[in-house]
Amino acid sequence: MEQKRKYRLRVENCIGTIIDVHRIIRDELDNEELLSHFESLQQAVESLDMSLVCEGDVLMVEQATNALLGEFKGIFEQGAFGPVYEGRQS
Fold this sequence. Notes:
The protein is mainly alpha-helical. It has one domain (3-73). The chain has helices spanning 3-29, 32-46, 55-77. Helix 1 (3-29) runs antiparallel to helix 2 (32-46) and helix 1 (3-29) runs parallel beside helix 3 (55-77). The two termini are 27 Å apart. The mean pLDDT is 83.
């Protein structure tokens, strides 16, 4: 697979994961504006010229996503919300 396509998929997966998590917790947060911003970001990535993106850029997005998910970890471990994705856990 072409490297730039791999970059796009990695970034899209990060943004998609954030959106999925936010959809689970949005009633508690009561912040539709935040979800709207991430959905806009998702659309912007679709038109992004990936020839301008390097591995370091993608790693920064992945690290930021992991940090954000780490912030949510506690509330999910407490059982306040159901799973983000249904299915078998390994």
